Amino acid sequence: MGKATQSGNASNGGERSRLYRLGCDASAWFSDLSAHPYAQIAVIVICIGWFALGLATDLLTAALSILAISLSQMVLNRQNEREAEAHRRDVAMHAKLDELIIAVRRAHNEMAGIEDLPEEEIVQLKEKALGLANGEPGEAQMQRSRQKGRTDSRP
After folding, report:
1. What is the distance between the alpha carbons of residues 32 and 79, in angstroms, rounded to a whole number?
2. Cα separation, 57 vs 39, whole angstroms
3. Do 10 and 17 contact (CB within 8 A), yes or no?
4. Alpha-helical segments (H) within 54-138
5. pTM of the full predicted structure?
6. Over the range 98-122, which residues count as b (16 or more CB within 10 Å of their CB) and which as e?
7. At residue 8, does pLDDT exceed 70?
């Protein structure tokens, strides 16, 4: 986290309180620990031992239910953090690609920013770009050819 995020002012939307950050850190640590294969084996061993000792299964069932719900929430919190980081990287990558498209003289500037278009339009633009790459004439070239043919056929 950046310095602005660590100031601890919960009233600002971009900044989080120390308690919130502590909860996030604990959640991250515990979800990483519980995802380890040894932790999963330990839960199985504890359950087998519990049944072997003949202890009350109601208590084990309640504990495992609470653990499952807590772990699910922790995993979802971590997933949200990862998705936010991936989104930030995607936005940065699109900005870089848009800059390159605009900077290259032969590039089609309408390709910059197409990630915001509906999927159907993106597919059409991709097919058009692939057609141009394969030497197929584009719409502008076809119109120029037609106009040239008209001017040549006039008396």
Report:
1. 12
2. 21
3. yes
4. 57-103, 119-133
5. 0.45
6. beebeeeeeeeeebbeeeeeeeeee
7. no
